[in-house]
Amino acid sequence: MKSMNRNDLFKKLYQRCSGYLELRAFPLKERTFISLGDDWLTIKKQVDKFCEDYKDQNIYFGVATRDGRGGKKKNIISIPCVWIEIDYKDIPEEKVQEIIDAFSFKPTIIIKSGGGIHLYFLLERPVDLKRSTDVRNVNDWIRLELGKGKLDNVGDITRILRLPDTVNHKYPRKPICEVVEINENTYKLDDFLREIPESNTELIAHVEYVTKQIEEKKIVLGDDSYNDWLRIGFALADGLGERGREYFHRVSYFSNKYDKGDCDKQYDNCLNGSPPEERITIKTFFRYAKVVDMATNNSGTIEDITASSLMKMEFPEPKWMIPSIIPEGLSILCGKPKIGKSILSLNLAVAVAIGGMALGKIQVEKSGVYYLALEDSHRRLKERFKAVLQNGKSPENLIVNTSISSIQDGGIEQLDIWLNQHKDVGFVIIDTYARIKGKKSNNTDIYLEDYNELVKIKEVADSHNIGLLLIHHTRKEESEDIFDKVLGSTGITAAADTLIVLEKNKNVVNLHVRGRDVEEAELALEFDSKTLSWMLVGDAREYSLTGERKVIVDLLRDKGCSMKLKDIADAIGKKSDNVRHLLEKSMEVMDGVIFQPKRGEYAIKTS
User: Fold this and answer.
1) Separation CA 155–CA 145 (nearest Å)
2) C-beta of residue 461 within 8 angstroms of C-beta of residue 416
């Protein structure tokens, strides 16, 4: 059999990949990036030079290709395979082949690292960052299937593994890392995913997210007592089974009492024994994490900044989902039931997804959209999309979901995780707030409860620099201020960046807008029942004008400059006193739009 080397490995892994190959040398922490756009001979020469320069170091390569600027998740370009590392300290060398033969997927590449073995399962086509969570889930599943909880976690997509044809300096005998097999086996990522229980995939992502937060803050769940530790173990065992062992170690690590062997024994007991009390489920784990998160978020120091420093700072202009109506941040769209809020939100979702015209007149920037239609069925959504698209192509970047957990059950954390996996999405619509709102507690301040719930949603929008539109209802009671009709306490309106209220007015529907980054406006909309589309027809204040007052407004607009009272009266065939009265009424209705540039003259703003 022909001997194989690292060049054969690279050709097999990266023949369909773009980006850069990352090499690192430890303990010096030297790094280089080699373009995969060069020919293989040039790549070989650059790799050989790095290996020669740092031959007394342990040399590793990034399995996924990079963008040439770094080795973090954001720098990942292509992921050519899924992989696993088996260390001989965890599984004896003589047992490894038996385990590989029993596994349903046969590795494409086998490398002996000197202290263990690396298995690579080549994908038919490389995947990108959007599927990084799927790759991580598959890597974790392979590790658990082959190692039964004994193997180290090397499944993250930024992973570096030992480079073949280099010395493993960790061992006194200094073994050479070598390629021992390369074959033609290739797989679809979905081939692996079908083997993972579907119900666990989303749960694992949620547990992974929470665990990373715990690790970043280096905190201990509960009061570091045996009883709390026991409950956390049973909670993870309930939700994840054997897969929860890794997370049990990770969340136990920051306790001064942590011992790897004791942790394993305890988790074995959790898998095989009975919990100390009923109703210990995976939700118990999330409750412990939530308490700790609240405690750590309330601590810290106040960060000051001087006014002069603030004035020197530069900030980017806010992004707009719908210019002059919906900026980035949290916006709430309210209206009476059946007034057309859901159809309007669908119109906006399609407009942003295709980068078209919102409300028939407002050009919007194209972006990915996540539309949570929580009150609709797939059948109803299909019919609505069919009408709105008018036989046009369905946008691939508009993703629809009809379910999500409530806020109390981790729905906002789920959304946060989802957005981390879909960086192209810039606009999220949740229809409606009532569907994700948690149950009210009897002993809580209603204002604070509403405010805290909305702030939680707003923080997700702000952290991802997206626009999030939350659909809500208005109350039946009338109010002088239209925005006081938003259903619920003022905690809701206080937390939102932008408030939008739909209100029926004669033959049109008025769209009222008020917010921190938008000019207050009243727009008039008309509904086209054939295309299920809302169309912007102008300033709502103009549409509230009738008869002679509208004639005067049209006259001033057509003229394009100020007119004397007598000239206006002559043009419409009315007495000056009557025209003065009509102008005064129009100025009341259209505050600031009709004005007097000088005494006895009237004009209309053109923009």
Assistant:
1) 13
2) no
- Residues 360-392 have pLDDT tens digits of 888 888 999 999 998 888 888 888 888 888 878
Q: Per-residue pLDDT tens for 470-511?
A: 999 998 887 778 888 888 888 888 889 999 999 887 667 888
At residue 591's C-alpha, the angle toward residues 590 and 594, to 5°, is 65
- DSSP code per residue over 360-385: TTEE----EEEEEETT--HHHHHHHH
User: By three-state DSSP, how is residue 59 classified?
Assistant: strand
Give strand pairing partners of 333: 471, 500
* Sign of the dihedral defined by the CA atoms of residues 487, 491, 492, 494, in that order: positive
Taking the model in full, what pTM does it have? 0.49
Ramachandran area for residue 344 (φ above 0: left; ψ -120 to 50: alpha; else beta): alpha
Contact 62, 109 (CB under 8 A): no
Cβ–Cβ under 8 Å, residues 524 and 507: no
CA dihedral 234, 238, 244, 250 (to 10 degrees): -40
Q: Check if the beta carbon of residue 81 is closer than 8 Å to that of residue 123.
A: yes
Per-residue confidence (pLDDT) for residue 175, from 0 to 100: 94
Q: How many CA atoms lie within 13 A of 216 on its CB side?
A: 8
